[in-house]
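re: ur question from earlier - yeah i can do the single chain one, its not a big deal. heres the input i used so u can compare w yours
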Amino acid sequence: MLKVISLLKRKEDISLEDFRKWALEEHPPKGKALPGIRHYRMSVALSDNPAAPADAVSEMWFDDDAARQAAFATPQGKAAAEDAIAHCSARMHLLTEEKILIE
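and the output i got, formated as tokens:
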């Protein structure tokens, strides 16, 4: 299974409080609507640190990279990406395969 880890940096004109609301309440319905998504998690920094390279981490699981590409090619995927672009000054995506070491 493919896990997409995205490091998200908020735009400078967005407070951490507003970014938290967006990341935990407003954006998730768009992520949940992606066809073929298996799991979805969002973690947001607890304290404001403008020097930090990211303010949030998004984790999404898909069966494979073909499923991920297909999901983001849909209208729902394009809407989710556009929403992230509108709120983030930078996004870094890592395509990984998770290995659980302690459960």
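The chain has one domain: 2-96. not sure if urs matches, ping me
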